[in-house]
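Field reference: "sequence" (input) and "structure" (output). Example, DinB family protein:
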Amino acid sequence: MEVDSPWLLEEDGTFLVNGVDVVPLVDAELDRRFPGRELRRAADPEGLRRAWAALEESWAATVARAGRMPAGTVDRSVDGEWSFAQTLRHLVMATDLWLGRTVLGQERPFHPVGLPDDDDGDGTAAFDGSEFSAEEPSFEAVLEARADRQALVRAYLDGVTAEELAAPRRNPHAPEHEETVLSCLRTVLEEEWEHHRFAVRDLDALG
């Protein structure tokens, strides 16, 4: 049996096998496989800066790996999941949503190459459906947008203070629920690491 779920490691989650909760074991093993992943729990400005630097380093190596694979690899899907290019597009959207719109309050934060989840573009509080391009962008355009959004996060973290991290924000999908700047940034980190895991898994399969 194989279980692959990003929700397995949610706070207060349990997954019992013969009476043993395996969630802490899985979490520790993923931290071992992906150095820097443990920093996603950072709660102060310096810790967040280190967490983002680790993510950028891991993603740079993975993008370089994808670039060394046969032409067209970045557009191939495994078992109906997003391709590598689509994964990067989704992370552009996630940055725009949680940092651009929710933390920075930008009115039009979304880059057109961004890719929302299938259930995100339905007219909810997060999207109106018109922000994103209907055409498949080139991988070069995806990398350019991705680099721009990574730089946006890096620049924000360079200047953020502990007081700013505690500032209230509204969940973009459910405005009645309050977030903080810190919880929004942690959502970005979770998105990054989960989709990095998926990308590595699928590159392994394609290889």
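Confidence is low (pLDDT under 50) at residues 120-124.
DSSP finds six helices and four strands in the chain.
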